[in-house]
Amino acid sequence: MKCYDCDTEAGTDTSATGVCDRCGLHTCQDHSLVVPAGVVVPSGLGRTLSPLPARRVVCHTCRAAETAR
Length: 69
Prior knowledge:
By secondary structure, the protein is an alpha+beta fold.
């Protein structure tokens, strides 16, 4: 697969190395970020957040939308 942003911005066929967790587009290392993700685990009768974060890949567009105030 090709990186969507590389293909639309520069017309290059850079290989994708990940898939955005939010929008599903294929991204290369230059157009993606690996960010921590909280993991909810069962705890007794309820749920709690794991002390160790997981990770997820997001494109720059989705990350900007997630962090906008």
